Predict the 3D structure of the following.
Amino acid sequence: MNTAEVIDKIKGKTGFICDMDGVIYHGNKVLDGVPEFVDWLKKENKKFVFLTNSSERTIKELQSKLARMGIDVGPDHFYTSALATAAFLQSQKPDGSAYIIGEAGLINAIYNAGYSSNNIDPDYVVMGESRSYSYEHIEKAVNLVMKGAKLIGTNPDISGPIENGIAPATKALIAPIELASGKQAYFVGKPNPLMMRIALRKLGVQREDSIIIGDRMDTDIVAGIEAEIDTCLVLSGITDEKAMGEFAYQPHYVLKGVFELV
């Protein structure tokens, strides 16, 4: 299939599930063609949701970040691993308590789901991306898990792209707690099918009419394949063609970036 045919196939979809880091921006730098791509989605009345494994930011913060980049998108178009984690906790143990290591996005989501903060005998230890990560946090988390708290990670990303390289993400940060406690974390974000089901429900679109656009083979692309949603890998983020070839599964489509669609 040539590039023009690929682009026609993708543009024919009704629902677009887009990752953010590596697809829309790197750190605080918007990627080529993104404002035009979002304008096209709106103009063509496409259903779209920005589905991010990052748990740092609230929806309002994500909205503001895109607005600074000149992209105006309503709050209904976002869903994060923090919101998915909060919904998962509430479905498992309503109105429980958690020891939370993370930023505002995760803390707010868990509080808004009816959970309370607890560093003595919580039901869960919940870990997301954190810039205030410390040895004390790890030590506290390990001992709470040893006393019976269940260990939850917002996402299984090891690293994420930033302007000048990569930053360690949740799976890298939670690893010391897993190793020291001997307990395995349960990860809620992509490629967990929970995230994909929520995204499709938000879109109100059948999976056959949807596509997931992402930059990671190990989360975005495998999530789409396992949920039987067409996948498009963009090479503007963490995965290049060489890395793509090392996986046992492959995306349905490959583009250099979303700029190719506009």
